[in-house]
Amino acid sequence: MDFKSNNRYFHRSYKMLYAGLPLAIIGGVVVFGKFFRWYIHVQNAFTVMFAVGIMLVLFFLVSFPRDGEFDRGIKNKIRDIRATAEQKITALEHTPHFGDNYLAEGFAYGEGTCELKRGSDGIFRTDIYSAAQLIITVKRLYVYSMRFSTVKDETETDFAAIEFDSIQDVSIKEELIEVTYGKKHGAVRCAFFCIKTDEKEYSFITHADSLADTMAKKILLRKS
After folding, report:
1. How far is residue 117's CA from residue 128's CA, in Å, rounded to a whole number?
2. What would the 3-class secondary structure string for 144-199 be?
3. pLDDT digits 0-9 by tens, 9-61
4. Within a 10 A sphere around the Cβ of 106, how many other Cβ atoms?
5. CA distances from 164 to 65, 161, 169, 195, 224 (A)
């Protein structure tokens, strides 16, 4: 993951734009207005000024990481999460029969996050991302989870083997979390894949969609 690029995503510097825009405007007015067309050296100087200004503006536009680039870094980070989970399961069951699986993932909001930006696609992105791979086997429900920073090298992982008999309930819960971006305030609707057992309750950030609902029903069906 490119942490420098991700930091620029949240903290865009406008220095190149502020420097390049005046040079491009002044140089362009003089060059295309042909105010000094009889003074070739002066005309050349303003031509160079115009070119430098345009280059600075273009570099400003292309140097800023886009939403898609930011998201690709996250996808690369979690692309092996299922394989890692299966390796851990195999170490316990030796010859497991893998059944249904589901990846619960999404940005974390509120406490623990330091950065927040609303992308051009309307999605609020933060410096913390969560991913949890759920896998059903004949014996148990397994969850391998990751919580990591998108702006620095910090990753937390956990692995849980949940006995079906201990599961009390599985549900998808939604809630509104207050967020602040710039001078604006708003609320982000978040969803959590919740597994309640006899000992504890697990909660993983996810998307409230049919895939999450289907996985929850399959876990409850396997329990029954």
Report:
1. 12
2. EEEEEECCCCCEEEEEEEEEHHHEEEEEEEEEEEEEEECCEEEEEEEEEEEEEECC
3. 887 766 655 676 777 788 777 767 766 665 667 667 877 887 877 776 676 66
4. 19
5. 44, 10, 10, 11, 8
* Residues in contact with 150: Cβ distance below 8 Å, sequence separation at least 6, in sequence order: 1, 3, 6, 70, 73, 74, 115, 125, 126, 127, 128, 129
Q: Mind giving me the DSSP string for 36-63?
A: TTT-HHHHHHHHHHHHHHHHHHHHHHHH
Please state whether the predicted TM-score (pTM) of the whole model is above 0.85. Answer: no
Eight-class DSSP state of 70:
H
Name which of 170, 210, 206 is nearest 190 in CA terms. Answer: 206
Cβ atoms of 60 and 87 within 8 Å: the answer is: no
